[in-house]
Amino acid sequence: GDSLKAAATSVCNLVLDFSKVTEQVVKAKVLGNIVELTRSMDHELRCMAVSTLNNLVYQADLHVKAATVNAIGWPGICELMHDPDEAVACEVFTLLLTLCHRANADIDLMVASAGGGLELVRQIAGRLDPCRPCSPVIWKQALLVLSNIATGTEEHKGFVMEGGVPELLVPHLQQRTPECEHSRLAAAWIVINLLYCETPEPSTTSGARARAQRLQALGVWAQLESMQDDPSQDVQERVTTALWSFKHLLGEDRDPQGAAPILPD
């Protein structure tokens, strides 16, 4: 009832404001009670409970994130991703965004929780089918989670490449309505992160080049070329960065469509 919602709201605010309270929530096994609320029949309680978990893991140490992930479990996360209430689904993608933030160890935690990187990526990508009705906010959040995973190691980038994400990039980059601005931006960030080379070592650049070739074959480079006049300045800037990466990895004279350059006589 209302008293339960009030109590949940108080805990939600406390764990955001006081890091010491966060530790106590984990130690006192209050975490299990919060997770139970994510399974409530009341959509407001579910939403508030996931929001509390978001606040709990925000800028938290890895052990707090691990305790939270273990408490809710991967099946619980998957169920919430497909919650009929879009506000709840949006909150759980925000939770995943926080859990996959800051370090490769955070991404590894989620990979282990899901039972593998491909399972992790495929479940997230499952909410990105442009043919299914869905809130652009959920698209944005899901794409941002994948963008965070793509900031990781070569293995993490491989999960994104093999988990069905590349085929979804062009459809989301083509969403030109104002409400889809942020999902276009997030899709562009995925391209940038997949093509980023942390070091100039051949093993790193060869992986990035292979990813660039595959994305080019799927029409991503050509789509980005057509977006240089995007109505959003933020999108334009990210498009410029992504195009630079393609040209840097595949050559300035390479045709975005994949054809060999026409050489002068």
From TrEMBL:
Superkingdom in the source lineage: Eukaryota
Record InterPro entries: ARM-like, ARM-type_fold, Armadillo, ARMC8/Vid28
This protein's record includes keyword Repeat: yes
GO cellular component assignments: cytoplasm; GID complex; nucleus
Stretches of the chain forming a coiled coil according to its record: none
The entry's keywords: Cytoplasm, Nucleus, Repeat
UniProt keyword Zinc-finger present: no
Primary subcellular site in the record, as a coarse category: cytoplasm
Cellular compartment(s): Cytoplasm; Nucleus
First and last residue of the signal peptide: none
Protein name: Arm repeat-containing protein
Organism taxonomic ancestry: Eukaryota, Viridiplantae, Chlorophyta, core chlorophytes, Chlorodendrophyceae
